[in-house]
Amino acid sequence: MKNEEMAKAILDHVGGKENIESNVSCMTRLRLGVKDKSKVDTDALKTLDGVLAVVDADTLQVVLGPGKVNKVAEPFAEMTGVPLGSGEEDPADVAADTTASQSTDVKSIAKENKTANKAKHDKPLQRGLQHIANVFIPLLPGIIAAGLINGLTNVIDYQTGQAFVTDWWYMTIKTIGWGLFTFLPIFVGMNASREFKGSAILGGIGGTLCLGVIVPGFPLGSQAIAMPFTNTNYVVGVGGLITALFMGIFFAWLERNIRRFMPSVLDTFFTPLLTVIIGSLLAVVFLQPAGAWLTNAIYLVMDFVYSKMSVFGGFILSSTFLGLVSVGLHQALTPIHVLLNDPTGPTKGINYLLPILMMAGGGQVGAGLALYLKTTNKRFKKMVMSSIPVAILGVGEPLMYAVTLPLGRSFITACIGAGFGGIAASLFHLGAVSQGVSGLFGLLIMEPGQQLTYLAALLVAYLGGFIVTWFFGFDESRINEIYPEK
């Protein structure tokens, strides 16, 4: 079936274009917001050639697989007249969708356990952190690309004595790498304002106050200006990305409240005007100092954990990380990773935290191998082997939610084993120049020259998870209780 034909068939089975509110393409899925779900023929959708699965959740999710989804999404958007959006795919969904030939058992159990676990821990804190993550997650493709470019060009400059700095093509590439991080506060401000129901462009205007460089023509920062209350000189870009986040949220709140009282005839002109004027003045006086304080606190905590606690800090971080993932609290680390990958920050764009956390997945892989070798439960063996390959590549959610987490003890021993990988990552002083991948794919984002030591640390995590689970994390009766053989 051609892409246009598939798009038309999907549209016919979801109630036509009048029933579509939104359509978002992720890595593997077309996520549709429908007005009336009673008009959706789920069974007919599942029978379409090329449709791998249909998930009826908060949005209707048509699983088409990587690559295919974008080719179908574009004609679908044209047919509906609803602009195509893009979103970040859940790693567990990616793993399940790209391994559609695997057992449906592991996919369904992983999804059920993940949904139940999220519902159990669905608290205001988790929801708030999810909003923050939604600000930064759409930026990750650019951050990944720019981070890799910066890391690669830095190595080339060092190895060649900056031999290419007079070549136009090389300087163009370097500009791309540095350009994103230079203007990243604008994008953060836009996303934050949009996420909190404001106008994205107004949040972006607030983000301009957080640029870490003096832009020609910008009056603020071009000369010494005393600030109120503190009587200290204004510092360009103080607070950085954290302040930009605050500004986007504040501008959205301010815009909504001004609009409530603004007469309709004046709304178009005066609501945005008052938002940017009032918001900017208050932001410079109050939000920027608060953002600067929080940013400095984050760097101090990271420095203490990494430098002062050393291997003990590495063990704690890597062994507790998946516990945070299981309840959704890992979302709080997303802006921290962005901060650490900023080449203008104290770490010069090298993220020393991420490699330690990446060891958590290695502990899960080792635990899964131990469980596979010791159990006699054939259904469970099949489930483990369906999850381990993608876990090795860095997508560990199916292994965690379908295998170790339901067993309880195995999850704990996997986390403890991962701690030894964290110790190795600390000893080797591993650093990442970007983010967005893990497992073996983590080799792509390590500092040049650290690939072998990263593999060594990952192997330690595998062995740690395997050994601790082999001796302390195996319970055959528990496996048979949760996964009875049919």
From TrEMBL:
Residues forming the catalytic site: 26 (phosphocysteine intermediate)
Database matches in InterPro entries: Glu_permease_IIB, PTrfase_EIIB_Cys, PTS_EIIC, PTS_EIIC_1, PTS_IIB_1, PTS_Sugar-Specific_Components
GO cellular component: plasma membrane
Biological process terms in GO annotation: phosphoenolpyruvate-dependent sugar phosphotransferase system
Location of the PTS EIIC type-1 domain: 130-486
Recorded topology in the membrane: Multi-pass membrane protein
PANTHER family attached to this UniProt entry: PHOSPHOTRANSFERASE SYSTEM TRANSPORT PROTEIN, PTS SYSTEM N-ACETYLMURAMIC ACID-SPECIFIC EIIBC COMPONENT
Subcellular location: Cell membrane
Transmembrane segment boundaries: 132-156, 168-188, 200-222, 234-253, 265-284, 311-332, 352-372, 384-404, 410-431, 452-473
Key word Cytoplasm present: no
UniProt domain PTS EIIB type-1: residue ranges: 4-86
Protein source organism: Lacticaseibacillus saniviri JCM 17471 = DSM 24301
GO function terms (MF aspect): kinase activity; protein-N(PI)-phosphohistidine-sugar phosphotransferase activity; protein-phosphocysteine-N-acetylmuramate phosphotransferase system transporter activity
Main location: membrane
Region Disordered: start-end pairs: 80-108
Keywords per UniProt: Cell membrane, Kinase, Membrane, Phosphotransferase system, Sugar transport, Transferase, Transmembrane, Transmembrane helix, Transport
Name used for this protein in its record: PTS system sucrose-specific IIBC component
